[in-house]
Write a structure and sequence with these properties.
Length: 268
Amino acid sequence: MEMIFHVEDPENSAVYENVSAARSNPAPKKRQGEESTATPASTGVKVYKVISVIVGIICILLVVYIVVQHLGLNDNGSTRDTLKNLTEERDDLRRTLLVVEAANKNLTGQRDELMQKMNDFDSQRRSLTEERDDLRRTLLEVRRQQGWVLFQNRFYYISSDTKSWQDSKADCVQKGADLVIINSKEEQNFLRKFKKRVWIGLTDKETEGVWKWVDRTQLSKSFWIPGEPNNFEGKDEDCGEIRYYDQEDSWNDAPCDMQINWICEQAP
């Protein structure tokens, strides 16, 4: 068997060592400050990206501007409509105000005219009232001179001669009055003060037993003497009189043709 021996060459061994060291050690990093070199391809890609971003931002801003303008236009349209409506309402109110002012002016004129008329009427009323009072005083004086007496705003005439009930009534009518109608206790007592036997305006000639006054009202309050009216002794006593003046219940029924005094009554 042959034995083969390998003998290393010193030069070749050194070369091998250098190559192995180069593979195991990486290239040193670039120091700060040292300029780097870039290829044209990588630079173009970066510029394209920047331009794309700018264009995107511009598009977004454009969309925002369009939206804002659209909203602004809508708001302006709504504002114009509101302004138009308010203007129309203002004009309507102005027209209404003019109408109201004209009506108020007309009413003011009418009021002033009515006030003037009222003042004139009031002046006339005062004048007529004074004239009426003067006439009443004059009439009262004349009536007193003629024998009339005033009681509770009514005149009473007491005759000085005697007549039948019917003739007495006719005399009162001729004087613008009628036979007295007695409506109260006060009036009854006033008439008694004349201390005369007198005819009063009471009769049942129309219906026996139904006593009525000369104004055709039916008797309600009475002052008959106890037991009256009674058609005494079967006589036809159809006319009323004040028989006694010294007592409150003093009425009596008597024949209508009897001759006695009478009392007339008249409103002033």
